[in-house]
Structure formats: structure tokens, C-alpha cells
Amino acid sequence: MAAGFGAAASPDPLGRWTVGDLHTHTVESDDSRATQTLDFLLSKAFDKYKLDWMALTNHLRSSKYDSNGNLLPAPVPFAYSMESIEIPHVRALQARGTYADKLIFSGFEWDVPTHDHVGVTLFEDTYSKAESTKGAKEFQYLFTTLSESLFDPVDVANWKIKYENRRYNSSASDALTAVSWLKTNYPATSLATINHPSRNPNKYTIADLRQMNDLAPDTMFMIEGMVGNQMEPDRGGYTSAYVDANLPNRAYGGVDAMVAKVGGVWDALLGEGRRIWNIADSDSHFKIDAAGNSSGYYPGEYAKNHVWMPYQTYGTSVGIISSLRAGRMYGVFGDLIDDLDFKVVGSSGTAYMGQKIEVGAGEKVKFTIRFKSPDFNNYLRPVDGDQLANMKPVVNHVDLIVGDVTPKAVVGTPAYNVATNNSTRVLQRFTAADWKVGRDGYASVTVQLVANKNQYFRLRGTNLAVDAPGLSLRGEPLADQKTSGSNNNERVNAINDRNYSSLWFYSNPVFVSVK
Q1: What DSSP designation does 375 have?
Q2: Angle at 466 between CA 465 and CA 472, to 5 degrees
Q3: Backbone dihedral angles phi then psi of residue 185, each to the nearest 5 degrees
Q4: Could you check whether the bond before residue 197 is cis, i.e. omega within 30 degrees of 0?
Q5: Hey, which bits of 257-362 come out as E strands?
Q6: What is the dihedral of CA 430, 436, 442, 444, to 10 degrees?
Q7: With CB atoms 3.0 to 4.6 Å apart as the test, which of 33, 167, 306, 458 could cross-link to 509 if both were Cys?
Q8: CA atoms within 13 A on the CB side of 485
Q9: Minimal CA–CA distance to 287: which of 44, 118, 63?
Q10: pTM here?
Q11: pLDDT at 104
Q12: What one-character DSSP code corresponds to residue 211?
């Protein structure tokens, strides 16, 4: 785990940084592999890569296998498998002291009607409340196309009465009904994360994102911009044809175009003052299978979410949910950095990532950026071996990005479909010539700016030069191209080399509001 600023290094001594992953799969997902058992995944996440918390998010489809990869007598809806297999297995491990200090919770990845995937969790405390699995079963019945015959007949009879014999699994309106269902039934604890949002063309418009966030802002507030499946030849699994028309459906340095493009979709949402955060996930299904196919890294191996948690809620589901909502977090690939402090200080106090500070018009405010890189990251060479390549990640430059904040677009107006923020720009670019490195290894830079209008400020950093052939141009990441090789071994190592040659981190914003 990152050393964090929770102790002497932090201006706020009442919390700590934690590291986790919100998107993982085991053999119970139909596109995983038999080797990716629940025990295997947990060991990789917590024993090998030292995460503090993790969501298990198998597909909300039917499960053919148990958590050990044994074939079930017949496929079952995943919500029932989660209840009878996954949750009891984790509960038993923790009762024996294994991962007892880790936060592990069960959710699912939902095939959204007319859209793509959304990661959903419903519950306050997965492993002690029966309510959690009751809700998952009801959700799967209502909002997926799985055959009614696979569900418990008693459950079906009750749901038919409750919902007047209706299911909501075919239209965009049904997707909004599901978001509303989450808000109504789990207002305090439900999360709905837009996974790999641009992977397939025309699955999400900005109006879709606005509608979902308007409907349930405490539930739908995260975009998986730093996508998983980084070991695929098409980085992130973004397999659309490599034509100009699909540039919005590419990854850029492994980051979805919605987040990677300055002035794009994420900036348009932030420019309305929306608290919608970017996260980084592994989407782990398997790494390299026996046939030489490759998918993604293990949880914590390549992608990490660093989330600050107050001590009073540390280690609880309530704590991680509230901390995710608060937005004091950043995502990173390849451990380019393992600590980041980004804050704005004005006459009214201090604001951190995810927060807002109010200042007077014309007031000077101070921005402090402080970060550290580890001595080595998890770069393996060869990728399927166990020897580190001893790569010390080095930040080449950090961008301070700014955008104006204006009132929210109104439903039914042309503005509701605008997916750009033309005010967003790289305000300053910092390199090693600008920051100072202390004896503790932290690089720091401080700037003062005059606040004269409502704005947000966010950070982006990379190990790439401003102009890296094929990877970046004038500091902007270029669309990732397909990676191939003459044989499986050459291909998977080329993919791994590609990923570690192009590392990024993205912070959540700080909002500055002018009185």
C-alpha cells in the first residue's frame, strides 16, 4: 500500500490513503478462465499486490462454475451463486483470519439495456446482511434478459406481484428505471460505475450520462476512464475498426477518450460542477491463458485507485462508499506515482481533490502539487515470468488542467447534448525543472493564481516525453494502436512493453468558486 499522507507527511492527520480495485472477475464469469478461482484472485490482489480493498464484480448472467472452477449441476443466475458460493467463501476465509483486515465486497457487472456495462454494488456490509443478495436477485430478474425459468419460482411469484408482471430489460428507459430502482432501494449504499464507456460505438451519449447522474447523483458518479483489459492487443479491449470515425472509441495511453481528451466528455460534465469522478480498474478476467490469449493484469498489478479515507470509517463498506463519493482520489497505471497530494489554499481554508473552496473575486489562491514515485514498479520481463525488470518509474511532466464551471445544462435544450467544454485547457505544464525533490523523495511544486471566475482544476501526469513518436504529440496522448507479434510469446511481451512505456495518472478535480 502507498505510504500515504495519513501520518507525518499529511496536512490532514485524521485519515490515510488506501488502494483498491472496483472491477474484477473470477471463474464464475463466463469469459474468465478456470484458473482464475476466487482464492487465486484474492491472493493476487491482497498477498501479491497488497490492495486494501476490492470489489468482486462477476457478470450478472448465469454461472456455470463454482468459485473453485468446478462445473455446477446446472447454470444458475449469478445473484444466487453470489449468495450461496462467493459470499460464504469470503466470509469463511475472513472468519479464519485470512484477509480479515481487508475490505472485500461482492457486486456485479450488469449488461445495461441498449448501453454497455455498469458495475453495481448495493450493500452496506456484504458479508453480514442478507438484504444484499435479496436485492441482487431482484435486480437480476428485473433488469436482465436471463430466462425466468432459471430463477427460484417462489421469488418469481413474489416479483410478479410486486412489479405487476413486468421486467425492464430492453430499452434506454429501462436502464433509467434501474438507476431509479437503485436510488429508491439503496439510497445510501448503491454504486453504479460506467465501465469502459467508449469501448463500443454509440453505447453512451453525454445525455445518457447526464440523465443517470441527474436521476441518482449519489449512485452514478464514477466513470471507469482508466480502463482494464490492458493486456489485450487492442489496448483496453477497444476493438472497433481503426478508422477516423472511431477515434472517440479508442483508448489514449490506456485511458478512455471520454477522460483522456482535454475538453471532452469528462470536462463537459465537470464544467457543470458535477461530482463525477474518474477511476482506474483492472477488469481482471485472466492474464495469459494456456492458448496464449491475453486479457488483463491482476488486481493491483498495473491499475490502482488511491482513495483517501478518514480513520473513523477506515476498513468499512460505509467508509469506502462515502470516500468514493467524496472524490479525494486519483488513478494510476504502472505505479507511475504511489502518492499524490493536490490541494488549493485560499482565505477560506484548504480544498483537496473532490472538494470545493470559495474565495473572493481577485483573490490569490495557492496550488500545491506533491507526488512521489516508487523505487520499482511491477514491470515483469518476460511478462509471464516472476522476475521484475527493475523499472523505476519516472514522471516526465505533470499538467495542471483548468476548465470553467457554468450552470448545468437543462434537459430538453441543445446544451444537454453538448459533449465538449471549450474552456478546458492545459494551464501549466511542469517538468523536473519546475519541481523540487526533497530528501523524502517527494517532488513538489507550488503556484499562485488569481481567482476571477468559477473553475475546476485537475492533474494529469505521464512518463512520456511531450512528443513521443506514436504515443504523444504536443503533450497529448495519441490513440493506442493494435499490438501484434509473430508468435504468442512475442505478442504478449510486446503488449506488456507497450503498456509500461506509456504510463499515466489522473487526479480528480478541485473546484474553485468565486463569491
Answers
A1: S
A2: 90
A3: -90, -30
A4: no
A5: 277-280, 303-310, 329-333, 339-346, 349-352, 356-359
A6: -50
A7: 458
A8: 17
A9: 44
A10: 0.94
A11: 93
A12: H
Q: Which three cell numbers stand for residue 381?
A: 520481463
Question: What is the chain's percent helix, strand, coil content, to nearest 5?
Answer: 25, 30, 45
Rounded Cα–Cα distance for residues 414 and 412 (Å)? 7
For the chain, residues with pLDDT lower than 70 are 1-13, 123-132
Q: What pLDDT is stored for residue 14 in this prediction?
A: 86
The enclosing H or E element of 192 equals strand 191-194
Q: Which residues of 313-340 are buried (b: 16+ CB within 10 A; e: fewer)?
A: ebeebebbbbbbbbbbbbbbbbbbbbbb
Residue pair 23/109 in contact (Cβ under 8 Å)? The answer is yes
Amino acid letter, residue 46: F
Cα separation, 60 vs 28, whole angstroms: 10
> What pLDDT, on a 0 to 100 scale, did the predictor assign at position 124?
56
Compute the C-alpha angle 311/38/119, nearest 5°. Answer: 65
CA–CA distance, 44 with 47 (Å, rounded to integer): 6
Grid coordinates belonging to 379? 514491470
What residues pair up with 372 in beta bridges, in sequence order?
339
* Three-state SS at 135: helix
Displacement of CA 302 from its chain's centroid (Å): 13
pLDDT in tens, 385-422: 999 999 999 999 999 999 999 999 999 999 999 999 99
Residue 470: other Cβ atoms inside 10 A: 11
Cβ atoms 504, 226 nearer than 8 A: yes
Q: Letter for the amino acid at 242?
A: Y
Cis omega (within 30 of 0) on the bond before 382? yes
Rg value, the chain, Cα: 22
Cα–Cα distance measured from residue 327 to residue 395, given in angstroms and rounded to the nearest whole number: 23
The Cα–Cα gap between 139 and 151 comes to 12
Looking up cell 525488470 gives 389
Rounded to whole angstroms, the Cα distance separating 326 from 259 reads: 19
